[in-house]
Prior knowledge:
Order of helices and strands of chain B: HEEEHEEEEE
Distance between the termini of chain B: 33 Å
Low-confidence stretches of chain A: 286-290
Helix content of chain B: 10-25%
Oligomer: heterodimer
Strand content of chain A: 35-45%
Amino acid sequence: MKKLILLWIALGINFQLSAQLERKLSTEGQEVDLIFHAPRNINLLTVEPVDKGTLHFAIMHTFGTLDGGLRNLFGIDNGASIQFSFEYGFNDKFSLGAARQGLDKIYNLYGRYHFFKQTYDDKVPFSLSAMGGAGVNTSDYSFLIEGDPSFVNRTSYAFQLMAARRFSDKISVQVSPMMAYFTDMNPIFFLEGDQNLYLALGMSGKYKVSGKASLTLQWIPNLNSDLRNNVGLGIDLEAGGHVFQMYFVTSPALNEQYLLAGGNGVPGEQFRLGFNVNRVFATKRSRMDW
Amino acid sequence: MRFLIILSLLLSIHWSVQAQKFKGEKGEIVFISQAPLSEFEGKSNELNGLVDLENNLLDFFIDLNTLKTGIGLRDRHMRENYLETKKFPFAEFTGKLKTVPKLTNGTPVNVVASGQFKIHGVEKNIEVPGQLTLEGNELLLKASFKVLLSDYKISIPKVMFYELAEEQIVNLSIRLKK
Lengths: 290, 178
């Protein structure tokens, strides 16, 4: 009889418990949001996608070296190397971009593809994306004795894999094996390297300080050239749909090919101020509610 | 003894079959944010609900990750900085009807529910007016209520490309089956 009473109690409890619905996530495998604030982190592209039907615009600047001191306003008087870049998301996996770098007047076309994204349940432990791009130098070299380089000899190519993981609420890291190829290394180009193929391992980091601000880091060790490595550190600020990125970096270069072959100053005295402004435009809505 | 046990088991099964329990899984929920300069809404079709008329129990929950506002970046900010869905994935309501109505097929009846609403880790007692319609073996529920974000410690973004209203209107509609 005691058993029976226990059973009844158990049933009663059971009934009480089943009175409420079991809380289940409808989004098993929810993708991790905002591994980085923007499709760019300092100079490198990230795994952050451009949403379908939106246009991401970035304007990037680097200035002269800091060692000019206050007289040159820490390099700002030396003028800026500027890159405009536009990237349009065709779907959530694929986007195409076009960029123009002031240095050597390079026009670059590139695409990004996102293979998969890190999920909160860690079934997918990191996000993987790839980038491929081709650029052409459009500077005027007609003053050269040997004449203008041909179109083909002005081209350069870049390829990059981006593997990124958000390790915690605050820390995100991306590792990007990179490759750049120059058809013809003309000494007149703004490049320090003298080989055609460059391999490097880009690293990007983000440390979230608050919902709207993060410290950022970039380090691009070269793997097959003895050029100095690129180092950058900065801060990302989100404000009203813009992401402002301010940083110190060792190279004036802004596109991938030049980042690998352009050479770098010594970190410290030869740091340069740089800043990017990122903005996203929704294009698929007639009503702009921005 | 064994007979008694079996009988009690049977009874309990019988009991839950008898109960006026309605459950639903794909209810629609919409929140509307009407700020002076920008109005937008977020939608989800993943509302789960239970209405037990016999024991007068209501229970609803939704996975907030399923809310979509039409702009991916806005959704990401919403999840990351405002709702903090990694820590608080659900919005939940558990309560009862103030008076359990007699339902006749096809006639909408206005009801008021009172209970605990929980979102962003904060719980509050609220009252929600709604409408119940019995349609054969199904129960159609519609309700609307307002949520003050400050009540639930949800910060309002100040400088953002969207403005968020302090007062959010929530409309829900769900079809529950016996």
